[in-house]
Amino acid sequence: MAEKKNFGSRKRFYNGYELARYRKWKGFKDSWVDFKEWLKEKKISGELLKADPVRAFKALTYYHWMAPYLGSGSMVDRTIDDAHGEALLIAHKYMQFLLKSNVEALIKILKSDERFGENEYSKKTVIFEQDASPILIGGFPNLQNAVEEPYFHILATANDQHAGHYFTDIIDSYGLPSDSCRNSSAICGVAIDDQLPYYGACLITSNAPCDSSVMNSSIVERRLKVPSIQGCTPMRWKDEDTREYAVAHVKEVIKFIEDCTGETFDWDAFFETVRQYNEETRIQHELWELAKSPYYPVPSVPNLLYRSFQLSFSSGLNKECAKIGREMLEICEKCVREKINVRPKTRYRTLVCGAPSSYYMHFSTWMYECWGVNTVAVLNNMSHHEFISEDDKEEALWGVAQLWEQAIMRRHLVGGYENLLEMFEEYERFNCDMIVFYDDITCKGSKSMTGMIQDIANERNIPLVWISHDLIDPRAIPRNEMRKQFNDFMFSVMNEKPLDESLLDFDDSKGW
Amino acid sequence: MGILIIILKIIACLIALAAFVFALIQAVYWLNIDNKIMFLLYKIFNRITDRVPRDRRF
C-alpha cells in the first residue's frame, strides 16, 4: 500500500508520525505565550531527573512503561494544538499542573522502589489500585498514597500510543481472551512481566471501575508481596440497602491500614482533606455552570485530564488542585462576562460519553480542528460530584464509599442503566448539538445498552455517533479508523464539509 | 575612561551571549528539537528494556 503523504496543516508532521518537524505559528501574542509556557513545562519535566538521577536512569533502563514519559512534551503539544488566546493559557496551566503532579507521583514511586535499594519511603506508602480515590490517606498524615496502575499503562499510552499493547500481548500469550478489558489486561501484563515496582506497606485493591478490576487484583497481589485488602464497594450504589455494607467496608479498610502501618486514623486531618475535596468539587460545579455559555474557553482534553486527576488522584490531597481550579475559574468568568470567543471555529457543541481511548486522547482536538466540533462536556467527568460531610464521621465515611462507588468509568458504565441515560439530561443542560459516544470494544459495561441509547437518540432527534476504539491498543482500531468513523457521520448525517481537508485522512500510526 | 570602555565591552558581551542563548532556545522551540531528541531517547530506552531478562510468570 502506498504511504499517505501529508499535505496542508499536516505537512509539518513526519509522514506516519505525530512528531512535528517544526512548531505551529499562532500569531505573535499566542506564540510568545506558547514559548514561555513551553519553557516552564521543560523545567517541570526536568525535575524527574533532578530528584534522583540514578534511580531515574535505572527505571528508564528497566521498566518498559517509563520511556513513554519522555513523550510528555509532545503529548502536551497534541492536546493544546487547537487552543488560542485565553484557551491556550488555560490549556497550558492545566497541563503544567498535571505534568507537575505526575512528575511528583513518579518521583514518589521511584524513591520508594525497593528494587533499586532499600529506602525509608516504601513502608510509608499505601497503594491504591485502579482509579479508587485515595482520600482516606488524608486521615494518615504520616503516610503517602500511590495510585499506581494508571501510571503503568493508561498514562503511558496517552504519551505513546504503543506503550500499552506491549503488556496486553503478554497476558494474551498466557491465555486470557483478547476481548477482555484492556485496562485490566495491561496491568496483569505489567505484573506477569515483573514490571511492578517493589514497594508499599499495604495494598488496597478495588472493584473500581468495574468487576474486571477484581480479576487483575489477584495477579497484582501475587507480585507485590505486601498485605492487601479488597476495598470493594457495591456496584448498585443508588440502592439505599447497600449503604450499611459500604460504610462498614470503608471502616475495615481504615483498620487494615492502621494494622499494617502502626498509624492511627486522624479525624481532624481527614476532615481537612474532605474540606479541600469539597472546595475542588465546588469549583467544578461553577465551571460546569460556565460551560453552558458559548464563550466557555476551556479546551476539552486538558479539562478531561484535570478532572480525572482531581477525582482519582487528588481528592483533596493535592493542595494545588483547588488553587489551579480557582485560577481557571477566574479566566473562564472573564471570557463569559466579556463575551470573548476563543473557540471561533465552533459549529457544533458536543457532549462526549463513554471511556475515551488512551491512545487517542487528543481526538477532541482533532474534531475541533477538522470539523469545528467543540467538546463542551464529558459525561465521565460528571462521576462523583456530591459534597462530603465535613463534621459527621458516619456521613463522611458514606461519602468516601460513594466516591469509590462512582469512580470514573463506573458511574456511567457499570452503575446501572439509569446513570448512563443521564447523558440526555446533560445534553440539554450544556446546550449541545450532538453526542459523541466512545465505544470501547472491550468494555462490557455499556455494550448491551447501545441499541437502547440509539433508539432514544433517534426518538428525540439527537445526532449521536459511535466511535469504536480499543482503549489502549491502536493496532485493532487505529487512530485513522476512529477519524474515518467520525468523518462518515459528519458527511452523511450532518451533511457538513470539513474545515480542514488535510486532516480528514492521514497516517499517524507510528511512534507517539 | 579605559575602565568605562572595558565595562561597556563586558556588558556588550553579556548582551550578545544572552541574545545567542535566547536564539538557541528559540531554535530548539521552533524546530521542535526537544521532542525530536526525546523521541530518539525513547527509541533507545525501549530497545534496552526489550532486552532486559525478566522473571516472567503467571
Tell me what you see in this structure:
The complex is a heterodimer of chains A (512) and B (58). Chain A has 512 residues and is of the alpha/beta class. Chain A has one domain. Chain A is built from 19 helices and eight strands. With 58 residues, chain B is mainly alpha-helical. Chain B has one domain. Helices cover 81% and strands 0% of the residues of chain B. Chain B has helices at 2-30, 33-50. Chain B is rod-shaped and about 80 Å long. In chain B, 14% of the residues are buried. The model of chain B has no long low-confidence stretch (mean pLDDT 93). Chains A and B meet through helix 1, helix 2 and helix 3 of A and helix 1 and helix 2 of B.
- Tell me the strand order in the biggest sheet of chain A: 2-1-3-4
Largest sheet of chain B: none
Total helices of chain B: the number is 2
Largest interface between protein chains, with number of residues from each side: A-B, 32 and 24 residues
Number of domains of chain B: 1
**Rounded average pLDDT of chain B:** 93
* Number of separate strands of chain A: 8
Strand content of chain B: under 5%
Work out the strand percent of chain A.
5-15%
Total number of distinct structural domains of chain A: 1
The whole-number mean of residue pLDDT values of chain A reads 91
Q: Round the Cα radius of gyration of chain B to an integer and report it.
A: 23 Å
Distance between the termini of chain A: 22 Å
Structural class of chain B: mainly alpha
Question: What would you say about this model in short?
Answer:
Helices cover 49% and strands 8% of the residues of chain A. Chain A has 512 residues and is an alpha/beta fold. Helices cover 81% and strands 0% of the residues of chain B.
Short descriptors:
heterodimer, A: 512 residues, alpha/beta, 4-stranded parallel sheet, 19 helices, 8 strands, 8% strand, B: 58 residues, mainly alpha, 81% helix, rod-shaped
